[in-house]
Amino acid sequence: MLSRVAEGKTRTGKILVVDDEQDIVTIIGKVLSKSGYDVVTACDGLEGIAKAESEMPDLILLDNIMPNMDGPTALAKLKASEATQGIPVIVVTALADVESIVFAQKGGAVDYVVKPFDYDTLLEKIAQTLDSKD
Question: Which among 5, 39, 57, 99 has most CB atoms closer than 10 A?
């Protein structure tokens, strides 16, 4: 794992990015890598669950709308599994309606970020989430 310095703290973190849009995965991956995070990626909910179980990331960024298994279904499965239920999940999606946000929060997501988003804001939310795990 790579270290990251934020607010004077040295940290490590592995982040799983689950999104079917390859451009989004590439851009988020580059931003996270430049910030010192170890990045793992998956293209849908099924692959995301498998990677979460095999990689045991410190945090998951999860899209809502994906083929094979959507984000809400993947979130429910992640939170139902003893192996992955403790991994914090931030939903990163284009869906900005209140119903989707409330559903994600009730499903166990720690935060919700609407695309398009500011990368500094995303990095802040990631740092805050990882800080709360310590």
Answer: 57
